[in-house]
Write a structure and sequence with these properties.
The chain is of the alpha/beta class. The chain has helices at about 20-30, 60-75, 100, 125-130, 135-150, 175-190, 210-220, 240-250, and strands at about 5, 30-40, 80-85, 105-110, 115, 115-120, 155, 190-195, 225, 255, 265. The strands form three sheets. It has a seven-stranded parallel beta sheet with strand order 1-2-3-4-7-8-9. It has a two-stranded antiparallel sheet with strand order 5-6. α5 (about 135-150) runs parallel beside α6. The termini are close together.
């Protein structure tokens, strides 16, 4: 079966490893046909004081050049130039223009921050105990629905239930929040991804949970697959298992964004 990943990273973000060339080589060796390279869009120093969570702004031209060169050298692989853009809500301190996003074929929308707090950062793990999971989960989905229905340039919403990363769950049933997220995403026309990296965190489960993925499917939300690889060795990790998860949720095809802004579909069931 054709393998694709629409979410990967490189050393251009300080917490990633490997060059664009190394990532492309690993993708080719794994038999991947579409590779989206989606480095974290720069955050301000106020939000990312160590410049560790996102790409440094001064590296953007080098990042774009590296992808352009890889495309020229490897026409046999569909390489999409992308970025992962954080939704910050009221804490947004960046000013964007159309030119900022013009180079990208794919823009992932991510919620890594709850009211300015990087809730999935292991260094910030202690706040979960201070605030309590019930409040955090409710606020996370409030922000997620705000992001997916915003006018931000997102095409794909990454790791939709990232709040489960540390396997800290609320005391209440999540069904209502899942249905709200699915309805919000359906109304926006945006895609979601099955993000295989979740299987390797404490939650030991891909993002999103099977119940949430099924809710997205029932709502008619298209779905793609991203490995969220931060090292070339993980570029293809879990793709076939993600297809199986999608099929179990009711999906018959994987949606793949294309460089011309369109979408194509791979049968999986």
């Amino acid at each position: 079966m054709e393998l694709i990943t629409t979410h990967t990273h490189t050393h251009f973000t300080d917490h990633g490893e490997g060059s664009v060339d190394e990532l492309v080589s690993a993708a080719l060796a794994a038999g991947i046909t579409t590779l989206a390279i989606t480095e974290h869009f720069p955050l301000s120093k106020a939000m990312d004081p160590q410049q560790y969570l996102s790409m440094r702004a001064e590296n953007m031209p080098h990042y774009l050049d590296a992808i352009a060169r890889a495309r020229r050298e490897h026409p046999e692989l569909e390489i999409l130039c992308g970025t992962e853009l954080d939704w910050l809500g009221e804490q947004e301190d960046r000013v964007f223009s159309e030119a900022d996003f013009a180079p990208f074929d794919v823009i992932l929308g991510s919620v890594h921050f709850v009211d300015g707090w990087a809730f999935d950062d292991p260094a910030e793990r202690g706040r979960w105990d201070e605030v309590g999971p019930d409040a955090i989960w409710r606020r996370y989905f409030d922000i997620w629905c705000e992001a997916v229905t915003s006018d931000a340039p997102f095409q794909i919403m990454a790791h939709p239930d990232l709040a489960k990363k540390f396997a800290i769950y609320p005391s209440f049933d999540l069904t209502t929040l899942y249905e709200q997220a699915a309805e919000a995403c359906a109304s926006s026309g945006r895609m979601i991804e099955v993000n295989t990296s979740g299987a390797h965190y404490a939650c030991a489960e891909m993002f999103p949970a099977p119940e949430l993925l099924a809710a997205f499917c029932r709502a008619g939300v298209e779905c793609t697959v991203g490995t969220d690889a931060h090292t070339p060795a993980n570029v293809a990790r879990g793709i076939e298992q993600a297809y199986q998860l999608m099929a179990q949720a009711g999906y018959q095809t994987v949606t793949v964004p294309t460089a011309d802004g369109d979408r194509r579909h791979i049968p999986i069931a």
